[in-house]
Amino acid sequence: MTNDQTMFIEDEELRELYKISSEENLQKLTDGLLYLQQQSKDEAEATLEKLARIVHSLKGDSRIIGVEDVVTLSDQVEKILLSLKRQEMILTPEVSDRLYLGLDAIGLLVYEAVTGEATGVDTADILEQLMVAVAESEPPEPEQLEQVQLTVSTQVSVAQENQSPTSTNELKDPPSPVYAANNSNSPQAKFSFIEDEELRDIYQTTSEERLQNLVAGILHLQKQPQDEATLQQLLREAHSLKGDSRSLGVENVVTLTHQLEEILLGIKRQEMILTPQISDRLYQGLDAIGLLVYEAVTGEVTGVNTVEILDNLVGIVAPSTTPESLPLLPELSPLPTPISVKPVIQDLPPPPLGSSQPYHIDTIRVQTLHLDALITHTEELTLTKNAIAHTATAIEEMTNLWEEWKAFYNQTKVAESSSLNIDSYTERLEKTIYSLRNTIQEHNTKLDIVTGELRDKIRTLRLLPLSTVFDLLPRTVRDLAKQQSKQVELMISGGEITTDKRILEEIKDPLMHMIRNAIDHGIETPSEREKLGKSPVATIWLKGYQMANKIVIEVADDGRGLNIEKIKQTAFKRGLYSYKELENMTPSQLHALILAPGFSTQTFITEISGRGIGLDVVRTSIERLKGNIEIESIPTQGCTFRIQLNTSLAINNVLLFEVQGIVHALPVEFVQRTLFISPKQILTNEDCTTINLDNQSILVANLADLLELSNSPAYAQAAKFEPQNQTQQPCILIKVGEEVFGLFVDRLMQTQEVVIKPQTQLLKRVRNVSGATVLGSGEVCMILNPSDLLKSLHQQTTSVVSAKQRKRVKTKPVILLVEDSIPVRTQEKRLLEKAGYEVVIAEDGLDGYNKLQTRKFDAMISDVEMPNLDGLSLTAKIRQHPEYKTLPIILVTTLASEADKTRGADVGANAYIIKSNFNQDVLLEILGRLV
């Protein structure tokens, strides 16, 4: 199968740099392979190490620029070179041929990337040829070698005959498409797009459900391997998915699902057992199927290598029936995750923050009884509409009667007729008015009942169980725990509780973040837990339950709990509070500090728990849902996050009040109480204004000042109608998280149930405002955002201090960028300079160490694998100097294993970014936290 989409590097400078560096690397690789067979064993080992380093650089350059086909082939070439170095393989002429084949294909793919012209390279076929080179322990049969040579270009064949391979890396003239696909039977080649829109939507919905059920079932089987009912259900799900895919022509999914079915049947027949290694391969297969479903419903290529996935699945099946004879399966490399892929199977590993699309529930299954009820209420509305139309006719009659009466009255004034006729008109008019009033009251009562029931039934249609989101988390817990070599069990309860669809969409990411945070920070390693007398297997509880009109979700763990002293140190270091203020805080107030923007106590930042961004992203999401979050923690025993949310987002109870003659509203769940404050109770100093209430000092401010209404010409007319100065001022006490503050208003009004209208994109981030509603009078009323009001209050009280700080001369932070790859450092340098940093370049670790001593730097960003001095050694060497103990160091590398990350932390790095997940937001966010 040839490439469906040709990759083209849009940026001209990067394109040229990538072309030059790739040509150089490919030339070195070709020359190195040529002389490798002529060298002694010791010489060959050094050459192989050098070649592996060169191909690793080529892979890194390609990954950072997005040339994924080159990344895939380079990775396989690197594996072969490393196997040769470890003497797991012998460099036979056949292996050399396949390596040359791979390098030639890479050269053509580089040509595609720098010109945008397709070359006809079949990446899947080339990859398969390279994989065969790894798999063969003996030289291939002559027939096999002949088949390989048939796929090689004439240029390569001539090069082999002369034992001097001609480099195909000169990209000045476009090569001919000689790598045409000959393996049309390959699963990879059967890419399809479902043309019928209705079938496409149905297939997407059913496939998502089946994949989620398969993931959940495999997780369950790992704990209950004897559960034959679950195994039988998994077989039915796989068989149904295969049948659906076959009927729609999605052959890739048919192929992989059939192999999944074979494995499940093998487990059922007790020909194999479900080991963790087999589970890993099953999960990778399901992830691949999810991406292939995405291809079928969108037509976009996701980069899934079906051949490799199928080989991994086929490798599971063992002929022996004894568990002892099952093969040890090697670790799997993660699937490529395209940046724009929507999660067809939602439990794929999360993409980098800032690049992922929001979780969205496209379809809801509705029971027919709910639809029947809606139809009944619609019929009632039709009857009421007809009755109101009849009433309108009565009003028209009354209007006519009134006109007749007026005409008659005018005539009687002239003719002085008897009052008898006047009384007759009056009686008729009075009778009509009373009848009309009673009719309108009846219609209103009936309309209230019908619309209320209709609203409730429609809202019921949007209700989904919490399990919709809860069921996505067991796989996340399993994968993250495995990454960190921890043992974690997730206990879920309350999944049957239903709530609004939008709440589930918005709550998924916060729950994911809290789970990742618990595993990364809260849960100890098994050895640490055993030393503390705990079970080596940690527990995370995910609970959902209902209280009155609120949904409560709890995420609790039995880990180490929050470190109060670390929280205090971080708060003081960030300038949030003084030590005196921190000492006077209650434990709950200190716990709430971790929800502050950018608050993170971790010293080594990875991408598992949010790149050190902290839990403010969780708090922001909860506030957007008009909810609140509480934290409880007991040292060494665990931590609990408790989220409270309204069951409905569209309708809310609000407190109405007036400011400058304009009616505003606040959600009542944030209003602690209302009261009147006399001037004697107000304490003012140079920094802030407070009141003392229940022995607590509470910040207060005039709401008109926070909203900047006092200085607005648009409100000048309204200001004329201000109430007269009173001895006591109305004050609203508001509670956001654990913080209470007061706002003075002009007049308190009633509470009211309103329909909240969300802000348009044009007004999306108007400060202090979360939405609007229309009152019964027809007046538009702004609904204020309590969290924004608290921020505005803090800004107002610290304005004097901030002004003093801003008098300092601001200079650009200076970053030392240590990177041996020209394309990578060019791209990173541009990014940093655009973000306002001054950048100094170092070409390798030794150059970086020397330049570090020439001037003061605010941070260092370094690659790991570099000549002369690698990034880990450079970091360790820098940390030996006391003056560099606090220098922020960020490692950016393709080395993604947990052991690599641990080494980065051990040598003293502050953050570790994987290039495969790299995007500009990741680097800039981490750098912004550290500098």
Note down, in words, how this protein is organized:
With 931 residues, this protein is an alpha/beta fold. It folds into six domains: 12-184, HPT domain (Four Helix Bundle (Hemerythrin (Met), subunit A), Up-down Bundle), CATH 1.20.120.160; 189-325, Up-down Bundle (Four Helix Bundle (Hemerythrin (Met), subunit A)), CATH 1.20.120.160; 368-461; 465-646, 2-Layer Sandwich (Heat Shock Protein 90), CATH 3.30.565; 651-805, CheA-289, Domain 4 (OB fold (Dihydrolipoamide Acetyltransferase, E2P), Beta Barrel), CATH 2.40.50; 814-930, Rossmann fold, CATH 3.40.50.2300. Helices cover 49% and strands 15% of the residues. It contains 31 helices and 23 strands. The strands form five sheets. A six-stranded mixed beta sheet has the order 10-14-15-13-12-11. A hairpin with a 3-residue loop joins strand 6 and strand 7 (638-646). The longest helix has 48 residues, at 368-415. The protein is globular and about 130 Å long.
Low-confidence stretches: 137-190, 318-356, 608-613, 716-725, 798-809
State the name of the first-level CATH class of the largest domain. Answer: Alpha Beta
The CATH superfamily of the largest domain is Histidine kinase-like ATPase, C-terminal domain
| CATH architectural label of the largest domain | 2-Layer Sandwich
- Summarize the main sheet: 6 strands, mixed
Q: At the third CATH level, what is the topology name of the largest domain?
A: Heat Shock Protein 90
Instruction: From the alpha carbons, calculate the radius of gyration and give it in angstroms.
Output: 35 Å
Structural class, from secondary structure content?
alpha/beta
- Average per-residue pLDDT, rounded, comes to 76
User: What is the overall shape?
Assistant: globular
Number of helices: 31
Integer tally of domains: 6
Euclidean distance between termini CA atoms = 48 Å
Question: What's the β-strand tally?
Answer: 23
Helix content: 40-55%
Strand order within the widest sheet?
10-14-15-13-12-11
What fraction of residues sit in β-strands? 15-25%
